[in-house]
Design brief:
The protein has about 90 residues and is mainly alpha-helical. Helix content is about 50%, strand content about 0%. Helix 1 (about 10-25) crosses helix 2 (about 45-60) and helix 1 packs across helix 4 (about 80-90).
Length: about 90
């Protein structure tokens, strides 16, 4: 039996679309559970994906996420945590 996913906020849905488009994922953006880990088994993202996503976020939102930031594991933990970080630091 499939598990229910948390509902995406408007900001999370927008970010999910950016994630799917940037990384050319073969899934609908609305299927990404906002609390599911972005890295690991579910989406199968890796460090190269994180770099590509950070660049796309910088372009779309004006938010810099440096590769050597000690908080990256926390920032990229889930769609929800990433959207929260963007909301706090957004310039566009």
């Amino acid at each position: 039996m499939p598990t229910a996913i948390d509902h995406q906020t408007a900001e999370e849905a927008e970010l999910a679309r950016l994630l799917v488009e940037t990384l050319h994922l073969d899934i609908p953006p609305e299927s990404i559970d906002p609390v599911m880990p972005l890295f690991g088994d579910e989406l199968g993202l890796d460090s190269i994906d994180a770099l590509e996503l950070a660049l796309a976020i910088s372009r779309a939102y004006g938010v810099e996420i440096k590769s050597d930031d000690a908080r990256n594991k926390e920032i990229f933990a889930s769609l929800r945590s990433l959207a929260g970080y963007i909301a706090e630091h957004r310039t566009r």
